[in-house]
Amino acid sequence: MDIAIIITYTLALLIIFMYSLAQLNLLVNYLKSRKQPDSSPTFDFTKAEEIPQVTVQLPVFNELYVMDRLLDNIAELEYPKDKLEIQVLDDSTDESVITTAAQIEKLQKSGLDIKHICREDRTGFKAGALKEGLKIAKGEYIAIFDADFLPGKKWLLQTIPYFKDQNIGVVQTRWGHINRNYSMLTKIQAFALDFHFTMEQVGRNYKDHFINFNGTAGVWRKKCIEDAGNWQGDTLTEDLDLSYRAQLKKWKFKYLEEVETPAELPVVISAARSQQFRWNKGAAENFQKLYWKLLRDKTVPFKTKFHSFFHLLNSSMFLLVLLVAILSVPVMYIKNNNPLFSWYFNVIAFFALSTVIFFYCYWHTFKKIHGKGFWNFMEYIKMFFTFFSIAMGFSVHNSMAVLEGHFGKKSEFVRTPKFNINTLKDSWKDNKYVNKNISGNTIIEALLMGYFGFALYSAFKLQDFGLFLFHIMLFLGFGFVFIKSVTSKL
């Protein structure tokens, strides 16, 4: 049994270490990209004949609290009115349908070409709505925004010109966060998303590795969508699915780090849970659906296959982290009860380098957004350990999602409720879309909080503090997620 535990523990650490090396390579790519000026061809919008027709799609479902804000914002986009169409793809089943229709009617009277498209059923969920709207879209290019996104007035002028390159199928922009500092939960979500939208997306895009359209705040060439097989609703992340199919068809993606599109982060843990579940399960589903096809494609370079492996299995790292965490306690006892294994524990201490690599990579993202300096670095250290503690606290919930994705269990597309939260004074307490049920995983999270409390006790009992910081982070992470999950229902 001891040997089985050690082998499993080592293999999990090894895969995590390989993942950290992939991230380090992306950092190298990111730093190189900053030294290279962008020489992409662009449309000249001073010439009317070069301004193409654009359709903006707004897929929404029961967004009572943010529809006014969304439509007011989209109406401010600067683009020739005769070249701009807006589709509100409304699958709502509540009273928001009526209020949305009334606001759209007002915008139509102002001369805006805006349509309210309602389906009789939600077949295919968001993917189905986008596909339905595409059938009648006038635009050669399709910009997509979720209900909580607030693009700047010049957003279309900053993105559409890059489609002059006929090989470009998608232009994706970086997400911003209008409520980053609302709570610790929003801060750690922003911390994670900043890393993805800065280092990962740029690092992959710079070397022409596969990246993903992020479901919103980007533009598709209509021809690219159709050529890649159109939107499909058989996974929970239709955006990642279509992105990989398009790149397998040799379409190029353009990522614009400097174009920020602000959005609202979930402020209550049940909303963050539903979003995390969808993203993590969807990634696993797409690994099963697409990776083997990519692996067999002889035209795709090995390095792109390597990065795509860890890209699609990004969420599966939660499963490995959970496994390492649970096994770390018996490993601590094995270490102290079996002196013959002492050499082994000296060897696996090498894998602590993974943490150093992650720390170094995340710092580059943090300082890009927040700036350098001693106090910013101190703030970064706090955020790094807080983020990884809470991320580990989510590992049970996210691991369940990953397992469902890999084993093919189907589930409905559960959209993340929006709150229209902009300042610390705003409250989400009366939001009708908040899930009032406590997840069954919450009980497991409470038990794991106790389990890692026992691990801290064991460190003093055995006088072995090699994993003490790791176990403190696990104890606090599972404690945070458990307490927040319970108190948010009160």
Automatic annotation (TrEMBL):
Keywords carried by this UniProt record: Cell wall biogenesis/degradation, Glycosyltransferase, Golgi apparatus, Membrane, Transferase, Transmembrane, Transmembrane helix
InterPro entries in alphabetical order: Nucleotide-diphossugar_trans
One annotated GO molecular function: glycosyltransferase activity
Biological processes annotated in GO: cell wall organization
Transmembrane segments: 6-28, 312-334, 340-363, 384-403, 438-458, 465-483
Subcellular location: Golgi apparatus membrane
Xref: Gene3D superfamilies: Spore Coat Polysaccharide Biosynthesis Protein SpsA, Chain A
Membrane topology: Multi-pass membrane protein
PANTHER family: GLUCOMANNAN 4-BETA-MANNOSYLTRANSFERASE 9, XYLOGLUCAN GLYCOSYLTRANSFERASE 2-RELATED
Name of this protein: Glycosyl transferase family 2
Organism whose genome encodes this protein: Aquimarina aggregata
